[in-house]
Design brief:
The protein is of the alpha/beta class. The protein is about 50% helix and about 15% strand. The chain has helices at about 30-40, 75-90, 110-115, 140-150, 150-160, 165-170, 185-195, 200-215, 220-235, 235-250; strands at about 5-10, 10-15, 50-55, 60, 95-100, 105, 120, 125-130, 165, 180. A hairpin with a 2-residue loop joins strand 1 (about 5-10) and strand 2. Helix 4 crosses helix 5 and helix 8 runs antiparallel to helix 9. It binds coenzyme A. Coenzyme A binds near residues 22, 23, 64, 66 and 131.
């Protein structure tokens, strides 16, 4: 791997974007490497949670603009599709994912964070979709995921103005789950990851499936998916063990 670093810190798998001199901007190579790392981790039962972050001062400043001159319309479409498919893969990934936003999360960098389950930002982070200033707009799923996360009005403001927003405001509008001091970012995100890793993994997988696929479907389909998944949870050892434990404590 050249453009990312993958670190196994059981039960956490770190995926660190690693082009710090280019603010971890995302090129094709990086996309391929992220996907291949995730495909490998999927079969590693010891890794229960993924944390994405960036090395240096950025999470990621977005798609690699230096490649744009090579793109004709068809290649641009293919590039956007490749990026979008990677983000879809991350969103539907069966293990929980956290974006540890250590600095700039712009354009494709923010789209990567939006594809994660949880976003924890450093107080010093800045987020945004500056693409409008290049005459384009987010192409890795950002127009759709941002609207669903924070609502149409605020999403359009961010996408149409292209301003960078501060972490505190991002928290206020629900774009990030939590903002923490830069010095405690890693510690807090690690604690969160360890907490997630202790949860019943099949239930986590079911929650992700029901929330992600249910939200895209008519409400009755989403609700039906929820009941079906709820039934499947009763097939797990975790459910049996945890319910027995709860009941036996109370019958003493
Ligand atoms: N693609 C390619 N290279 C990028 C990049 C991107 N999205 N963002 C930053 N870089 C490169 C810069 O070209 C520079 O490389 P160089 O030293 O070889 O010239 C290096 O990263 C550092 O960036 P620089 O602009 O000097 O840092 P800064 O601290 O002054 O500014 C930003 C930081 C994030 C405000 C600025 O880099 C920026 O606006 N980046 C583009 C963001 C963007 O439009 N993203 C959407 C892309 S579709």
């Amino acid at each position: 791997m050249e453009s990312i670093v993958v670190r196994e810190e059981t039960p956490i798998g770190w995926v660190i974007l690693n082009r710090p001199d280019k603010l971890n901007s995302i090129n094709l190579k990086m996309m391929v490497e992220i996907e291949s790392a995730l495909r490998e981790i999927i079969n590693n039962d010891k890794i229960k949670v993924i944390i994405f972050t960036g090395s240096g001062k950025a999470f990621s400043a977005g798609a690699d603009i230096s490649q744009f001159k090579e793109l004709d319309p068809v290649k641009a479409w293919e590039f956007a599709t490749k990026g979008r498919e990677l983000m879809d893969y991350i969103e539907k990934y069966p293990k929980p994912t956290i974006a540890m936003i250590n600095g700039y999360a712009l354009g494709g960098g923010l789209e990567l964070a939006l594809s994660c389950d949880l976003r924890i930002a450093s107080q010093s982070a800045e987020l945004g979709f500056p693409e409008i200033n290049l005459g384009i707009y987010p192409g890795f799923g950002g127009t759709q995921r941002l609207v669903r996360l924070i609502g149409k009005g605020r999403a359009l403001e961010i996408i149409m103005l292209g301003d960078r927003i501060k972490a505190d405001y991002a928290e206020k509008i629900g774009l990030v789950n939590r903002v923490v001091e830069p010095s405690s970012l890693e510690k807090e995100v690690r604690e969160l990851a360890l907490k997630l890793a202790e949860k019943p993994q099949t239930a986590i997988k079911l929650i992700k499936t029901v929330v992600n696929y249910g939200n895209d479907a008519p409400i009755m389909s989403g609700l039906t998916l929820e009941s079906l998944g709820w039934g499947i949870a009763f097939a797990t050892e975790d459910e049996k063990k945890r319910v027995d434990e709860f009941l036996s404590k109370r019958s003493k």
